[in-house]
Design goal:
By secondary structure, the chain is α/β, with parallel strands linked by helices. The chain folds into two domains: about 110 residues, Aspartate Aminotransferase, domain 1 (Alpha-Beta Complex); about 230 residues, Type I PLP-dependent aspartate aminotransferase-like (Major domain) (Aspartate Aminotransferase, domain 2), CATH 3.40.640. It has 14 helices and 15 strands. The protein has a seven-stranded mixed β-sheet, with helices on both faces. α6 links the parallel β3 and β4. α12 packs parallel to α14. The radius of gyration is 21 Å and the shape is globular. The chain starts with 6 loop residues before the first helix and ends in an 8-residue tail after the last helix. The relative contact order is 0.15. The structure holds pyridoxal-5'-phosphate.
Length: about 375
């Protein structure tokens, strides 16, 4: 059978997320491994009646409440089925086939995939090892130099996944100024916002060419429901919203999102618990003499003694999932572990030390 298919879509190699993860301790995708308090979830569930489910979602009320939550107006807000969907809309709207999308690398993989799917030219600026700073680093000048008349979109991930580093305001503003000079849009992805002091929210509200994205998938702990937010000047948000499906965000996601906005106590508790767990993990790794990269996000990169792929495999046998990188990546010698409560980190640490330092290896089997 022959049929037409968009060649960019047809030829893009996709690896879809792993299934059957529920039987594992999931430290591979930066989800909250503990989840929300179950009494909160039970209370919210009581509001899901047959009538609630038989009505199309009405997102405007949540838009208004979220705007109030961050000190903005509803016109500044766009909602989406996770940041995933919002990124697609933004790249469809502000990208141009054959023109550049500038990001750093390594970073969140879906930027590259969306560029392939949409026929946009992905222009990654690579992290390099900086001997003086003793860390991987991308000079801001290199990002600015990559932005030119061919650039339509620049994506800044604050803090970056997986590198954990956040941007200084003045560096971010240099990128925004440079992009503005070439009429390019800057997307600032703050998926890990709650773990990080630095935010560019006010820049997104002040500048015409900046859109900031946030998600309810990470600290807010509802990735299953898919709820993402974009924040920006009313004019750019209006254009971005043109591309949306009519009922993009489901009503259950809106309900949980709204209830969470009213529960500062839960949000504070989640922040505190992750911070405590990350601090514990980092101190233990230091004690054990490990090199690691830990910044302002709910994940840590650990340089393993064995091949990270082997450690990944041994951890999988112990029913723990973590993330590793390809052989061409600057962080090929590292694994990324999601950080959560101290209990979870203690469980991970025992298994990790056994896997990385134990004598059992894949070859022994
Ligand atoms: C930097 C970054 N942006 C966006 C996302 C996707 O978030 P969502 O669940 O809202 O689609 C992730 C998920 O890992 C991420 O790391």
């Amino acid at each position: 059978m022959s049929f037409y298919a968009d060649p960019n879509i047809k030829n893009t190699e996709r690896i879809f997320p792993e299934q059957g993860r529920s039987e594992y301790l999931r430290l591979d995708m930066n989800e909250n491994p503990t989840g929300l308090p179950s009494d909160f979830v039970d209370d919210v569930k009581k509001k899901i009646t047959p009538e609630f489910l038989s009505t199309y979602p009405e997102p405007d009320d949540f838009r208004k409440k979220y705007a109030g939550y961050i000190g903005a107006k509803p016109e500044n807000i766009m909602l989406g089925n996770g940041t995933d969907a919002i990124l697609r809309y933004l790249l469809e709207t502000f990208g141009e086939q054959g023109k550049d999308v500038v990001t750093v690398s390594p970073t969140f993989e879906m930027y590259r995939i969306n560029c392939l799917l949409l026929g946009l030219n992905h222009r990654p600026v690579m992290y390099e090892w900086n001997e003086t700073m003793k860390r991987f680093f991308v000079p801001i000048e290199k990002i600015c130099d990559a932005i030119n008349e061919n650039t339509r979109v620049v994506i800044v991930t604050n803090p970056n996944n997986p590198m954990t580093d956040a941007y200084e305001r003045e560096d971010f503003l240099r990128i925004v100024d440079r992009a503005e000079a070439f009429n390019a849009v800057v997307i600032c992805d703050e998926a890990y916002h709650y773990f990080c002091e630095s935010t560019m929210r006010d820049v997104a509200l002040e500048r015409k060419n900046v859109i900031l994205t946030r998600t309810f998938s990470k600290l807010m702990s509802i990735p299953a429901l898919r709820l993402g937010v974009a924040i920006g000047d009313p004019e750019i948000i209006k254009v971005a919203r043109q591309s949306q499906l009519s009922f993009d965000v489901n009503a259950v996601a809106l309900l949980f999102g709204e209830e969470l906005l009213g529960r500062a106590d839960i949000v504070e508790g989640l922040i505190e618990s992750e911070r405590e767990g990350r601090k514990y993990l980092v101190e233990e790794l230091k004690e054990e003499g490990y090199e690691y990269i830990a910044g302002e996000a709910n994940y840590v990169l650990i340089k393993t003694k064995k091949d990270p792929k082997e450690v990944e495999r041994l951890l999988r046998e112990k029913k723990i999932l973590i993330h590793t990188y390809g052989s061409s990546s600057v962080i090929k010698d590292y694994l990324r572990v999601t950080t959560g409560s101290k209990d979870i980190m203690a469980r991970f640490l025992i298994a990790f030390l056994e896997a990385d330092q134990g004598t059992e290896s894949v070859d022994d089997k």
